[in-house]
Amino acid sequence: MELYKHGYGIVPQDPLRRSNTFSSTDTDVNNDPSSNYRLKSTSLGLVSTLSFPVIVSTADAMLKAAGVTLIGYEKIGSGQCTAIVRGAIAEARIAVQAGVEHAQREGQFLSSLVIPRPFPNLEVIFPIGSQLLEQAQQHNRSRISNQAIGLLETRGFPAMVGAADAMLKSANVQLTGYETIGDGLCTAIIQGRVADVAMALQVGIAEANRIGELIAVTVIPRPLEDLERSLPLASCLIEEQPQPLMLPIEVKEAEKELVELPDLRKLPIQTKDQQEI
Questions:
Q1: What DSSP string describes 180-215?
Q2: Between β-strands 69-75 and 109-116, what pairing exists: parallel, antiparallel or unpaired?
Q3: What is the average pLDDT value for the chain, to the nearest integer?
Q4: Which of 135, 183, 240, 263 has a 20 to 30 A CA-CA distance from 20?
Q5: pTM of the model
């Protein structure tokens, strides 16, 4: 693929169509549904915090405040995390405002940004939406889970492992995974009923404080499906799909053995008189 310099940056160039790459009047672009979607009034919203549990709860607040899609998280080290959402310009602005207010209440807000109508070049270079474009085109609202999600963040891996062990032993919850974001910050993620998650986190808080340093704790009741998909999931919790029955392509039948029959002409024949005797 050939690259050429354009007034808006360096973009992939299709040798069959070299003119007016970003023009909305391009026939090929108008015939492409995905290109049409990019040219609509969509925007990106970004909110950054200093804690993974806080960024997850911030993303939850953004999803529940407006009709946006959660693209994912960017973790750049030193505990800095950014939640990225996509949707209509008005919806993205409402979602970012809700996320900023939530992060400020938690005392971990860093920065925020709304990008109206981002160019495809921006989406290709940064992982901020192109990989979930097909999913973003589905305008159906995400379903709400009946489970709750609990996140417990510590500074230091032993404190997080010890807290996770204590939480599993104290309530009917599942450890779905963990996340590290640099600066020694580790987050254990559990799932279960709201009461069980709240009870487990209380025990986890005590254990984390005993072993090391507790940073943040968050409970998210009834998370949206977008949020659940964005979190790590332990492979042991994924249901194994039934494997297809493997049959051999060639079936070899066993060769049949030939049985030699006696010569009927040489067999003795009993007459009627011999049978009466």
A1: E-STTEEEEEEEE-HHHHHHHHHHHHHHHHHHSEEE
A2: unpaired
A3: 78
A4: 135
A5: 0.67
Do 177 and 88 reside in the same domain of the chain? Answer: no
Give me the amino acid identity at 158: P
Give the amino acid at 71.
Answer: I
Using one digit for the tens of pLDDT, what is the confidence trace for 161-170? 999 999 999 9
Contact 199, 187 (CB under 8 A): no
Q: Please say whether the beta carbons of 142 and 225 come within 8 A.
A: yes
In the structure, what pLDDT confidence band is assigned to residue 17 with cuts at 50, 70 and 90? very low
Least confident of 82-91, 182-191, 210-219, 228-237: 228-237
The Cα 114–Cα 46 span in angstroms is 6
Q: What percentage of the chain reaches a pLDDT higher than 70?
A: 68
Which of 74, 105, 137 is the last residue in one of the domains?
A: 137
Domain CATH code at residue 109: 3.30.70.1710
- Write a three-state SS string for 38-84: HHCCEEEEEEEECCHHHHHHHHHHHHHHCCCEEEEEEECCCCCEEEE
Within-domain flag for 232: yes
